[in-house]
Design brief:
Layout: H1 2-24, E1 34-43, E2 49-58, E3 63-68, E4 71-79, E5 81-86, E6 92-95, E7 99-102, E8 108-112, E9 118-127, E10 134-135
Antiparallel strand pairs: 1-2, 2-9, 3-8, 3-10, 4-7, 4-9, 5-6, 5-8
InterPro entries: Cupin_2, RmlC-like_jellyroll, RmlC_Cupin_sf
Protein name: Cupin domain-containing protein
Organism: Bradyrhizobium arachidis
């Protein structure tokens, strides 16, 4: 009986984490052709801050609109070619192995400009009490 209860608790805990992750990213922020996979989330030694790692996959030609984060974003391109439009800078196209740093609160957008799927590893150092992503105009 104890083993069944333990398994049930694990399933419920996993469901709660999945629900929390889905609720932190509004449906409007997830356009068709974009897949965000949460990899890890941990509290930092700095009070009120956390590190979040997400894999973002973009289908060919798909863009992720202008948005901000409540902290820094560190990007490592895993595959493909992604154009980043960071406010105050000219657009830049990065390919697998390239990196980009986006300061806290900076408006930016990304688009897969290649003919194959593109992927990035996004690491966020953010405030825990704010949404991970906020869409802008």
């Amino acid at each position: 009986m104890g083993h069944r209860l333990s398994s049930a608790v694990r399933v419920l805990a996993s469901a709660a984490v999945l629900t929390a992750n889905l609720l932190t990213l509004p449906a409007a922020a997830q356009p068709s052709g974009v897949t965000r996979t949460d990899l890890q989330r941990h509290d930092l030694s700095a009070s009120g801050r956390e590190a979040v790692q997400v894999r973002v996959d973009l289908a060919p030609g798909v863009a992720f609109g202008r948005h901000t984060h409540p902290g820094e974003e560190i990007i490592y391109v895993l595959a493909g070619a992604i154009e980043y439009d960071v406010e105050g800078k000219p657009p830049v196209t990065l390919k697998a192995g390239d990196v980009l740093f986006i300061p806290a609160g900076t408006v930016h957008a990304a688009k897969n400009v290649g003919a194959v799927p593109a992927s990035e590893l996004a690491t966020y150092i953010v405030a825990k009490d704010k949404p991970l992503l906020t869409l802008t105009k």
